[in-house]
Amino acid sequence: GTWVETEKEISVSELPSKVSSSIKQQNPNCEIVSAYKIESATKQTKYEADIKIGKIKKEVVLLVDGTTAK
User: Fold this and answer.
1) Three-class SS of residue 46?
2) Contacts for 19-28 with beta carbons within 8 Å, 24 or more apart?
3) Handedness of CA 23, 53, 50, 35 (dihedral sign)
4) What pTM does this model have?
5) What is the C-alpha to C-alpha distance for residues 5 and 51, in angstroms, rounded to an integer?
6) Which residue among 11, 35, 63, 66 sits deepest, i.e. has the most Cβ atoms within 10 Å of its Cβ?
7) Strand, coil or helix: what is 41?
8) pLDDT digit string (tens) for the chain, length 70 residues
9) H/E segment holding residue 19
């Protein structure tokens, strides 16, 4: 088979600074619970983070420059 995509858990401190600051800017008072690096054969590398704001949990996916991935 052909390699398509790899998702690897990374520590929150390994998130690129533009990604973590963008998450904090878009979601004030959030806690970044976990982080993942998603590498793809055909798309840009993305970073996924599970965040918590109070009791609400959500997932955000950003590109290395801090913009939201489509």
Assistant:
1) strand
2) 19/47, 19/49, 19/62, 19/64, 19/66, 21/66, 22/62, 22/66, 22/67, 23/49, 23/51, 23/60, 23/62, 26/60, 27/51, 27/53, 27/58, 27/60
3) positive
4) 0.90
5) 23
6) 35
7) coil
8) 899 999 999 999 999 999 999 999 999 999 999 999 999 999 999 999 999 999 999 999 999 999 999 7
9) helix 17-26
